[in-house]
């Protein structure tokens, strides 16, 4: 029989200030997004006494051409033409319709399992806005890396500066819910280039050497080779690190070619 | 006490953080919704929330104040043509996945908005629902047939 572990209460603050104060008062309380990672975890490992859900707060629901709230669902992201292509493609690649209707951008960034949307956000140069649980009264800006796996930050929204040409692709064993092999996103502005890699067993990360090769006009094939060399990937039951590098090389080459050909 | 509407009836939500599936099954006695995996991976626990499929094993009931929830019992009560079509096409064997399949299929047919459904769309809509018995062919055929019936095509 399944364990029935559940929090004693789910608190639903009405404002950012109230949410920050609750989280400061209850250090063991867990922030809840859509629950697609948290609830199965609670069942396996036991639930916290309190969870905090931001559904009644306005700020984390905002979505625009340069901003995505933490509570925006992946389904909403796929349907909004204003957001960069890589974000829409990454969101559409996650699970089936029922997962996307619940899973949030905040949960994708913080849980990074495997963080497909987080990879796309890295490629468009996004940062997070929110509160540090140790300093609940002050707004804070976080790098995405600071948010990955963090339990002491409340993420309210993600922002990116400029409209970027971007694209995302991933290799997975099965389209909806099968283990991911690797995910890749790239982004380009007039003067920046970003290539981000993610997948099981690795935190989403950028590959600096490949990015500078791209910026200096190297061919898509050369940039892709450099990305494969720089990618931090691991062996697991789904794929070897060698296979993952080969996948990174193929996906990066395809994405750069697509963007450069204006597709 | 906060409430949500389940199959058209207002119901008091629990105060604790139990998941939607446990509340629906244990408190409301609507045991048509199954919990085959409890980890978000099979889609068998799907219910409609405001017309969209969600995994009832992976969301606390209490956060769905004023939500409109439809379970497989709700589809049966309004004699949804999908149910008859599943029977006619032999689209269930053990039946463990069936409630989730029906709910996901209803969301898809509603999204078609009266237009005839197509196989690729139906397969995409059911991509998060796992069946260990039937191999999907009969399920997809049942959804397409019910969709044609609804659209008059
Ligand atoms: C079948 C299936 C397939 C999946 N496939 C993929 C996939 O291909 N790619 C992928 O990236 N993911 C995948 N996932 C994982 C998951 O659905 C996503 O990562 C999802 O976006 C997590 O968001 P959530 O809102 O459900 O997180 P939750 O479960 O609500 O939260 C996860 C964690 O993040 C923390 N958190 C949530 N929101 C905040 C916030 N605003 N501030 C601070 N902390 C917060 C929570 O405390 C918790 O620790 C899949 C899941 C399932 C069930
Ligand atoms: S029981 Fe909810 S997805 Fe399997
Ligand atoms: S009929 Fe047995 S799992 Fe689908």
UniProtKB/TrEMBL annotation, chain A:
Q: What keywords appear on the UniProt entry?
A: FAD, Flavoprotein, Oxidoreductase
FAD-binding PCMH-type domain sequence ranges:
3-192
Identify the domain of life.
Bacteria
Which PROSITE patterns does the annotation name? FAD_PCMH
GO molecular function per UniProt = FAD binding; oxidoreductase activity
Q: Which Pfam families match?
A: FAD_binding_5
SMART domains from the xrefs? CO_deh_flav_C
UniProt signal peptide:
none
- Tell me the PANTHER family matching this sequence: XANTHINE DEHYDROGENASE SUBUNIT C-RELATED
Annotated protein name in UniProt: CO/xanthine dehydrogenase FAD-binding subunit
**Gene source species:** Actinokineospora auranticolor
TrEMBL record, chain B:
Q: Which InterPro entries match?
A: 2Fe-2S-bd, 2Fe-2S-bd_dom_sf, 2Fe-2S_ferredoxin-like_sf, 2Fe-2S_ferredoxin-type, 2Fe2S_fd_BS, Beta-grasp_dom_sf, Diverse_Oxidoreductases
- Where do the 2Fe-2S ferredoxin-type domain residues begin and end? 1-75
Q: Which Gene3D superfamilies match?
A: 3.10.20.30, [2Fe-2S]-binding domain (1.10.150.120)
Q: Name one GO molecular function term.
A: 2 iron, 2 sulfur cluster binding
Q: Which UniProt keywords apply?
A: 2Fe-2S, Iron, Iron-sulfur, Metal-binding, Oxidoreductase
Looking at the keywords, is Nucleotide-binding present?
A: no
Q: Identify this protein by name.
A: Carbon-monoxide dehydrogenase small subunit
What lineage is on file? Answer: Bacteria, Bacillati, Actinomycetota, Actinomycetes, Pseudonocardiales
């Amino acid at each position: 029989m399944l364990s029935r572990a559940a929090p004693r209460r789910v608190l639903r603050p009405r404002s950012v200030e109230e949410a920050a104060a609750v989280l400061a008062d209850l250090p063991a309380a867990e922030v809840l997004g859509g629950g697609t990672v948290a609830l199965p975890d609670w069942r396996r490992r036991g639930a916290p006494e309190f969870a905090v859900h931001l559904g009644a707060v306005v700020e984390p629901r905002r979505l625009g051409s340069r901003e995505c709230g933490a509570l925006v669902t992946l389904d909403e992201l796929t349907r909004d033409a204003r957001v960069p292509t890589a974000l829409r493609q990454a969101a559409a690649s996650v699970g089936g319709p029922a997962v996307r209707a619940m899973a949030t951008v905040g949960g994708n960034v913080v849980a990074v399992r495997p963080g497909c949307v987080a990879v796309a956000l890295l490629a468009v140069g996004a940062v997070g806005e929110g509160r540090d649980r140790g300093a609940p009264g002050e707004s804070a800006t976080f790098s995405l890396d600071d948010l990955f796996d963090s339990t002491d930050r409340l993420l309210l929204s993600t922002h990116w500066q400029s409209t970027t040409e971007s694209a995302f692709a991933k290799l997975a064993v099965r389209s909806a819910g099968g283990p991911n092999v690797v995910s890749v996103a790239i982004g380009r502005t007039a003067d920046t280039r970003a290539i981000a890699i993610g997948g099981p067993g690795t935190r989403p990360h950028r590959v600096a050497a490949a990015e500078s090769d791209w910026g200096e006009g190297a061919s898509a094939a050369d940039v892709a080779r450099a990305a494969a060399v720089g990618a931090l990937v691991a062996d697991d039951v789904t794929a070897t690190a060698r296979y993952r590098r080969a996948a990174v090389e193929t996906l990066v080459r395809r994405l750069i070619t697509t963007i450069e050909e204006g597709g | 006490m906060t409430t949500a509407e389940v199959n058209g009836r207002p119901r008091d939500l629990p105060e604790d953080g139990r998941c939607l599936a446990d509340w629906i099954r244990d408190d409301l006695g609507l045991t048509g919704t199954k919990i085959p995996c409890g980890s978000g991976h099979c889609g068998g626990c799907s219910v409609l929330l405001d017309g969209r499929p969600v995994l009832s094993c992976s969301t606390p009931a209490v956060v769905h104040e004023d939500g409109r929830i439809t379970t497989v019992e709700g589809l049966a009560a309004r004699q949804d043509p999908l149910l008859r079509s599943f029977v006619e096409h032999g689209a269930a064997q053990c039946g463990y996945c069936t409630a989730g399949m029906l709910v996901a299929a209803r969301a898809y047919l509603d999204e078609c908005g009266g237009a005839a459904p197509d196989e690729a769309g139906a397969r995409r809509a059911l991509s998060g629902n796992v069946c260990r018995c039937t191999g999907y062919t009969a399920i997809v055929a049942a959804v397409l047939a019910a969709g044609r019936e609804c659209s008059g095509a």
